[in-house]
Write a structure and sequence with these properties.
Blueprint lengths: L1 E3 L5 H5 L20 H8 L8 E2 L7 H9 L4 H9 L6 E6 L12 E7 L1 H4 L1
Parallel strand pairs: 1-3
Antiparallel strand pairs: 1-2, 3-4
Helix pairs in contact: 2-3
Length: 118
């Protein structure tokens, strides 16, 4: 999961009630995509979109998460060891637009594996 948090008050700026269902867009090209394709697609997300969930397969998802994360923290160390099936990586970014997304620009706020939840 990749989440953009451009600034404090971001939810209000995007005009979306946090409880409102988010639109869903299926893009078959991302399913088995590599990290370059995933990053390129994320850079084209509309500025009004505050959060994005990317679902796909490895190695693309793992490579994307590793590339976008700043390399800090215990969550990153765990991600580097293994990104198993059904794992979740949540990255947070301090960006004005998705077009600014670059390698190392995110903070890995959460890395959760099936083993973590039981």
């Amino acid at each position: 999961m990749l989440r953009s948090t451009p600034r404090a008050g971001d939810l209000g700026r995007h005009g979306r009630d946090p409880g409102e269902p988010a639109p869903v867009l299926f893009e078959r090209g991302l399913y088995m995509a590599g990290s370059k394709a995933i990053l390129h697609r994320l850079q084209r997300v509309a500025g009004t979109v505050g959060s994005v969930l990317v679902i796909g397969h490895n190695p693309g998802l793992e490579e994307t998460a590793l590339a976008l994360a700043d390399g800090e923290g215990e969550a990153y160390a765990r991600l580097r060891r293994k990104f198993p099936t059904c794992a979740l990586a949540r990255l947070e970014f301090a960006l004005e637009s998705w077009g600014e997304l670059r390698p190392g620009s995110g903070r890995l706020a959460l890395f959760q594996t099936p083993e973590d939840i039981g």
